[in-house]
Amino acid sequence: MRRKITSVLVGLGVLGGTLVAATGSAQSHGYADSATSRQQLCATGAVRNCGQIQWEPESVEGLKGFPSAGPADGRICAGGNGRFSELDDPRGGAWPTTQLSSGQSHTFSWRIKVRHATSDFRYYITKDGYNPAKPLTRADLEPQPFLTVPFGGVRPAAVVTHNGTLPQKSGRHLILGVWTIADTANAFYACSDVRF
């Protein structure tokens, strides 16, 4: 009898461990909410026909190492994740924009659902002449981030904010936020359509 109980408990432990391992990768993680990201627009219903991202705005995770590695051109806003390809669709340049003031201070913020050890947060912006009616490529972005916030492996809070000075730009642009995880091969991506 004792042997049966032990076998059942071991079996339950293995099952529980399997469930934790299986659900660990499917948990949500984090997304940018200032400037408003495409995934947030989908999650709040401000933009329709978004597919699965409307229920998982925190899950835009792809390989890290951007811009030398990471998601392929044209698949950057979805982090290379085909489940969220609606984020890469430029919608004819009609994504709603966040109004920003060129050269002014701005507080960027992320909502973090699963707090990963973090290398850094980086913010890239599109070059002058960017065409918002086409999927985002590396060639569309300035080569260097305009803001980098090092974290040195620390886990961020549930809401993390970064103050930075916006570049001198005018018209419609896109800001790409990249949250690089320290202890995995991945990063989280957030595209925010903005107007200066």
Automatic annotation (TrEMBL):
Keywords (A to Z) from UniProt: Plasmid, Signal
Transmembrane segments: none
Keyword Protein biosynthesis belongs to the record: no
Cleavable signal peptide: 1-21
Gene3D superfamilies: chitin-binding protein cbp21
InterPro entries: Cellulose/chitin-bd_N (IPR004302), GlcNAc_Chitin_IntDeg (IPR051024), Ig_E-set (IPR014756)
Protein's name according to its UniProt entry: Putative secreted chitin-binding protein
Native organism: Streptomyces clavuligerus
